[in-house]
Design brief:
single chain; mainly alpha
Length: 97
């Protein structure tokens, strides 16, 4: 899926890893926001803000991978994969709060 070697491979792993870890915090923010004093309206606002915020993040990951020779389909797939922890962490936060 990723045929990248050398220093480019290190950069790719670093960016994908950091963006994946970054998604945990975003998922936590969304999950906790629904438990705030304003409930659903606050949670919806935070969810929409993070959704808009994710557009340039996904583009950044995809463009970085495309510049290293990754196909557009695989670059898009990796962008989606880096955001999956948001959904997983949101689910765990919303059930704990």
């Amino acid at each position: 899926m990723l045929d990248i070697r050398g220093a480019d491979a290190t950069k790719v792993v670093l960016v994908i890893g950091i963006m994946t870890l970054h998604s945990f915090g975003e998922g936590s923010g969304v999950g906790v926001s629904f438990a705030g004093s304003k409930g659903f309206s606050q949670g919806l606002l935070v969810t929409l803000a993070i959704a808009v915020h994710n557009i340039p993040e996904g583009l950044a990951v995809s463009m970085m991978l495309a510049s290293k020779g990754v196909s557009p389909q695989n670059a898009m797939l990796w962008s989606v994969i880096t955001s999956l922890p948001q959904v997983m962490h949101y689910t765990s936060q919303s059930t704990c709060v």
